[in-house]
């Protein structure tokens, strides 16, 4: 049973997340031969103030 964890910053809509898990599942099926019903994808969304790059919170970055 492939188990894929994806960590990402919140802000994507439901359609984007559906597309993501569909495409990830298809890639795992293609490359491992596992049946789709055995592929599990866990999305962990975090707020911008819980993630940083180079010591700067994403919430502090200028858009």
Automatic annotation (TrEMBL):
Keyword Oxidoreductase: no
Gene Ontology molecular function: any one: isomerase activity
UniProt keyword Cell membrane, yes or no: no
Annotated coiled-coil segments of the chain: none
Gene3D superfamilies noted in UniProt: Macrophage Migration Inhibitory Factor
Domain 4-oxalocrotonate tautomerase-like: 2-60
EC code(s) of this entry: 5.3.2.-
Keywords in alphabetical order: Isomerase
PANTHER family attached to this UniProt entry: 2-HYDROXYMUCONATE TAUTOMERASE, TAUTOMERASE-RELATED
Family, similarity comment: Belongs to the 4-oxalocrotonate tautomerase family.
Protein name, as recorded: Tautomerase
Species of origin: Pediococcus pentosaceus
Lineage of source species: Bacteria, Bacillati, Bacillota, Bacilli, Lactobacillales
